[in-house]
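In response to reviewer comment 3 from the previous cycle, which asked for concrete evidence that the modeling workflow produces usable outputs, we include below a single protein chain processed end to end. The sequence was submitted unchanged, and the resulting structure tokens are shown without manual editing.
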Amino acid sequence: MHTKRHWKPFTATCLGLSLMTLGFSLNPGLAGAQSKTFTVPANKGYVLPFTAGRHQGVSVPVGYPETIRPVSKWTDKTKSVVWYLYQEPGDYNFSFDGQVDKGIDLPFELSISDADPAGQFNEQHQRITFKGSGSRDTFTVGSIAIADTGYYRYELKPKADPKNAITLHSLFFTAENGKGEVHQTDYQSSPSVHLSFSSTAPTTKSYDWIYGEILVPKGGDPLATYYESLGFYRGYMGIQTNSDQERRVLFSVWDSKDAEKDKSIQQSDLVTLVAKGPGTVTNNFGGEGTGGQCYNPNANWETGKPVHFLMNVLPDSNGSVVISAWYQIDTKPWVYVASWRAPKEKRYFDGYYSFIENYGYTNGWMRRMAYYYNAWGKQSGGGDWVSFNRVRFSHTDGKPGQRVDYEQGVSPAYPDRFYMASGGYTPTKLTANEIPLGKQIPIKDLTSFKKQVQDALKEEVKRQ
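The workflow returned the following structure tokens.
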């Protein structure tokens, strides 16, 4: 549900800043004894238009969670800085804390809009000029009336060469009579959202094969996104948007202990590579536990086409398990990724989980989205395939005033698919957590996959 939000019309000429009459006004009464001021670090914004790489034309240093480092090195007049702020109803005085080189006047356009594309607020624009004194100043903009709680988008865009002459430290919002709240998000990434799969059908919850599909729709694939498909007790598998040219399939398995934190770790705790496919790159990873990682840099999955995932776990007599993974893009042949040996482990899969994660901060306002569906597990010991038709939701944020822009549940467009979305600074949406049980077994004959596992074990023996 969306209600109209309003900015209080105003005009003014203020300290360090000249304003034209386009919808802003200065209200000195807002800064009364009962007022409260909210400080938004200027580096809690984004650079738009987004370009990959470090050289953005303006520096907005990443800071988590409350680090204040200034926006600076503004040399590109085509680049804006955009803040998405969560605000509650109230009247606010709005100002910038910054510095402009002495004797330089810098014209900008300030645009304020509803962050939700479905919102009814009409975008407003204001031409402003920062006048440089060479000292750190408070540049008072004017008053803003917020009628409804939600995300608001503030864009500051140069109208001439910024000349690397401006530094912005903070945005100030002073609420009249203490009514209102303003929150920047602690991090500029987007929420990680998860689905944990299970079944309404009778099952042992012990599976030696698991299967799932992902379809990323067009426009749902910003850079630095990981769409995990099969997550389990020792690792995970999924797809990534690594660059405009590279779309990886990734498969990782954790060690028995964290090599970066646990000093008691032994060589026997580390995962080892059993075998890998011809296009697979392998390495070690850390930062979230340690383990073995592999990926196919030339997978080249595409939006609008499904990616199929298959994984097998084979317990061995020496107290370890061998975990193998494959993928298929649309109707192309299946691709073998690798097999890893996970030590000190005896378990079969008991189901799996999926997620969407933004592992890059600089494009965290973009919306990531994918369908997750046709989920199955084959019961160990030669049992039947079981359809996973129920999910449990979870996420990494959702705190008031923070990142609540995520969606999870049964797709409104496809009643036989779950979906997840993250980012966009839109309202939270949660739908149903159950779909009908699947009827079509995904893979009827596993013979060729079983043979690849056995061939991998033979290759491991030869190396020893």
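Residues 193-463 form one domain. We consider this sufficient to address the reviewer's concern, and the full set will be provided in the supplementary archive.
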